[in-house]
């Protein structure tokens, strides 16, 4: 078909119409929303919605994936508010740019939450490095007029002022060249918990990254690290460096393996003075004194290198800066993974335990040195426990007697374990008024369990009244004479009184063990008395021989102190016999007129135990236990030589053998 012929005017009109159409098409095709349309394809559906409608982003989904990808710093909504405007960019990049780097202050901890898969950043700016120098300067300036303020003040006071300043400048120059030492430490205070009962494998731990160049060291940015990433060990991480520049720290939380949920809470601190947090994996700093079915008694090592009474007063006047934490053994214990972390143990102990700990300062376990004393109660019977002694962190550094310094973040000592007794027939008593050295489990019964004071008073008053009778007799015999008329050159009445008291308290207040404890040095008591369930001991052995050697003998079917069976009624129990030295000592120290002598032969064996360098085989004042090792509190194991003595029971007290 032939085209119609057009006039020049018509053809010009057509040309401009075509051009206009093309223009329109081109204009339309350059509209921005077409690019948007094309770019939107790879973006996840919910992001498209947000960017198209400009709505605020809903809170993070319950699985925490949004927050965790972006390190929200715990400030909810910050990411949500910014995200729509930058929907075309990589969200994680923006998230990281918003991630703050927190500024640390010298010797102050910063606390932080961390979700799984996130990293938190910190910086100790170099201005903080100088904090120490400035402090030293100001101390020095004061030191010139106030010498005791600074350690070296004494010397500087004598010097000319200019000389001291010169020294300071030299020191400062040295410091600038070498850089300051910075101690970085961190403690995990809270961690994810297993959501299945039987957990295998270790608790996931945080990781510490340190750099002086990389401002955000972490698992995604490992360039310029000063050291390989440091994995927290049982909730503790540390690092030391010399530097003159800013120190950047990253603490990264791993993503959680199957079976764990929750998040972390931690403390990080950098200091130019020394580690803010610390632990001592080599020392326990504590001894076990004794346990019963619901409690355990401990004492610490000496708190001071001096046993002067003002040291004791100093320690006993302010609250004890130590805390004891205890956790029952089990497949999972909340202290697992936090064993080197003071804040971790503290939080877990408070959150998961009914255990109560009362503490005081005592000087009874040897030579008047002040020691901390802890009574841990509300324990379950026949159960293993793990304990930790910790030094509370405080603004003021604490100097330990071994020379260590504990700063604000506290210190955890090495863990220790113990097992509570199974029976209610023994109960720990301590801090008696008269028998002040008694601190161990004694025969008791359920009726005395709720009131330790009642049990203490019963024993203590009995011992005190026996002692008064003895003391009166002693006065009549030999004491108030001139030294030439003394009964002995080596011993006097003071020695006699002390030794009698130590012996009396040990014999009247026996040390009690579970019936089914098996050590062969323990001695059966009350074997004809039924147990709580009505059965009697050795029910399977009714032989005449057993009746004659055991069942019918007072040494086994009664307590040595009749008051115990009459008033306390503990049922069958075992006794850790008093050490024979206690008896030898009174024989040696007291006037012969009193007629003291110690039983020997079989009678002696059934009344007294003999000391052993490795095991606590007999009881003596101040006996304590270190791990499986036995120590004499008053150096009592340096056994005094026993004199040869003759038969018969001791005068002044009826004893059943
Ligand atoms: C020593 O320093 C303390 C604290 O700065 C101040 O209170 C005291 O007055 C000073 N003593 C002397 C003698 O300057
Ligand atoms: C971390 O602290 C422990 C115990 O205080 C110490 O033995 C260890 O040397 C320290 N590690 C570093 C890298 O400083
Ligand atoms: C952990 O998981 C359990 C069960 O799966 C759930 O009940 C609990 O709320 C979770 N805890 C946290 C902190 O997410
Ligand atoms: C602590 O010491 C014990 C034994 O000395 C050792 O088995 C354990 O690994 C140590 N723990 C840490 C965190 O160093
Ligand atoms: C732990 O519990 C005790 C007693 O209930 C309370 O006084 C103390 O403030 C608690 N400490 C922490 C860290 O929660
Ligand atoms: C703490 O004591 C209460 C009441 O005596 C008891 O119900 C609870 O089970 C105890 N908790 C633990 C962890 O023993
Ligand atoms: C415990 O016993 C003592 C002495 O018998 C008595 O004074 C005290 O009131 C008792 N305490 C309780 C809580 O029963
Ligand atoms: C012996 O002397 C002491 C003080 O030295 C005194 O307390 C005591 O009553 C005196 N005893 C006798 C029997 O004189
Ligand atoms: C007894 O002897 C001790 C030294 O063994 C001495 O310190 C003490 O003063 C003496 N006591 C009397 C009353 O003489
Ligand atoms: C003591 O008896 C309890 C049960 O009453 C038992 O669990 C425990 O293992 C026994 N201890 C010893 C040392 O036999
Ligand atoms: C031994 O003593 C028990 C309890 O008193 C008694 O039941 C038993 O018959 C005695 N055995 C002999 C052989 O007498
Ligand atoms: C006594 O101590 C030694 C040395 O530590 C040890 O080998 C032994 O088993 C202990 N005896 C008992 C019965 O525990």
Automatic annotation (TrEMBL):
It comes from the Eukaryota. It holds the Pfam family Mid1. One of its GO terms (molecular function) is calcium channel activity. InterPro entries: Frizzled_dom_sf (IPR036790), MID1/Yam8 (IPR024338). One of its GO terms (biological process) is calcium ion import across plasma membrane. Transmembrane segments: none annotated. This is Calcium channel subunit Mid1. It comes from Trematosphaeria pertusa.
């Amino acid at each position: 078909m032939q085209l119609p012929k057009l006039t020049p005017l018509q053809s010009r009109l057509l040309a401009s119409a075509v051009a206009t159409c093309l223009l329109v098409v081109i204009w339309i095709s350059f509209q921005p929303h077409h690019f948007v349309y094309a770019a939107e394809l790879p973006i996840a559906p919910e992001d498209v919605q947000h960017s198209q409608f400009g709505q605020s982003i809903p809170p993070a989904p319950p699985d925490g994936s949004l927050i965790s990808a972006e390190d929200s710093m715990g400030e909810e909504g910050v990411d949500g508010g910014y995200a729509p405007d930058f929907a075309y960019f990589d969200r994680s990049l923006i998230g990281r740019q918003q991630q703050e780097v927190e500024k640390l202050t010298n010797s102050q901890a910063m606390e932080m939450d961390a979700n799984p898969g996130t990293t938190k950043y910190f910086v100790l700016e170099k201005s903080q490095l100088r904090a120490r120098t400035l402090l030293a300067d100001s101390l020095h300036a004061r030191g010139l007029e106030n010498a005791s303020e600074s350690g070296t003040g004494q010397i500087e006071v004598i010097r000319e002022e200019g000389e001291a300043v010169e020294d300071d400048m030299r020191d400062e120059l040295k410091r600038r060249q070498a850089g300051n030492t910075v101690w970085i430490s961190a403690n995990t205070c809270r961690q994810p918990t297993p959501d299945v009962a039987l957990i295998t494998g270790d608790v996931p731990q945080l990781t510490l990254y340190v750099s002086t160049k990389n401002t955000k060291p972490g698992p995604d940015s490992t360039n310029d690290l000063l050291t390989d990433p440091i994995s927290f060990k049982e909730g503790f991480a540390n690092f030391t460096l010399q530097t003159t520049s800013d120190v950047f720290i990253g603490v990264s939380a791993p993503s959680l393996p199957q079976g764990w949920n929750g998040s972390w809470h931690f403390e990080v601190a950098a200091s130019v003075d020394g580690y803010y947090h610390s632990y001592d994996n080599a020392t326990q700093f504590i001894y076990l004194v004794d346990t019963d079915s619901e409690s355990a008694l401990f004492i610490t090592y000496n708190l001071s290198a001096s046993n002067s009474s003002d040291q004791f007063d100093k320690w006993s006047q302010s609250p004890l800066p130590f805390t004891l934490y205890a956790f029952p053994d089990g497949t999972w214990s909340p202290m697992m993974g936090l064993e080197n972390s003071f804040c971790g143990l503290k939080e877990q102990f408070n959150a998961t335990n009914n255990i109560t700990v009362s503490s005081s300062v005592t000087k009874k376990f040897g030579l008047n040195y002040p020691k901390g004393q802890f009574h841990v109660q509300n324990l379950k019977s026949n159960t293993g426990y793990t304990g930790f002694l910790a030094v509370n962190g405080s603004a003021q550094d604490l100097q330990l007697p071994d020379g260590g310094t504990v700063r604000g973040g506290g210190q955890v000592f090495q863990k220790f374990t113990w097992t509570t007794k199974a029976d209610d027939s023994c109960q720990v008593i301590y801090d008696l008024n008269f028998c002040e050295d008694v601190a161990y489990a004694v025969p008791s019964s359920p009726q005395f369990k709720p009131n330790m004071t009642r049990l203490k008073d019963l024993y203590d008053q009995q011992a005190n009244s026996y002692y008064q009778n003895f003391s009166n007799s002693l006065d009549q015999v030999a004491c108030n004479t001139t030294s030439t008329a003394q009964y002995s050159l080596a011993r006097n009445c003071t020695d006699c009184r002390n030794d009698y008291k130590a012996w009396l308290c040990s014999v009247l207040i026996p040390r009690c063990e579970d019936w089914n404890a098996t050590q062969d040095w323990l001695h059966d008591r009350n074997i004809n008395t039924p147990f709580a369930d009505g059965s009697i001991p050795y029910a399977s052995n009714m032989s005449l021989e057993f009746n004659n050697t055991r069942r019918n003998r007072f040494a086994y079917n009664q307590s040595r102190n009749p008051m115990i069976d009459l008033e306390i009624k503990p049922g069958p129990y075992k006794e850790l016999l008093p050490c024979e030295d206690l008896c030898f000592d009174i024989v040696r120290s007291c006037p012969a007129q009193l007629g003291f002598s110690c039983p020997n032969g079989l009678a002696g064996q059934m009344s007294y135990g003999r000391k052993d360098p490795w095991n606590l085989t007999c009881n003596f004042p101040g006996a304590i236990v270190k791990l499986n090792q036995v120590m004499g509190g008053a150096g009592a194991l340096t056994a005094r030589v026993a004199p040869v003595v003759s038969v018969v029971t001791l005068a002044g007290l009826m004893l059943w053998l």
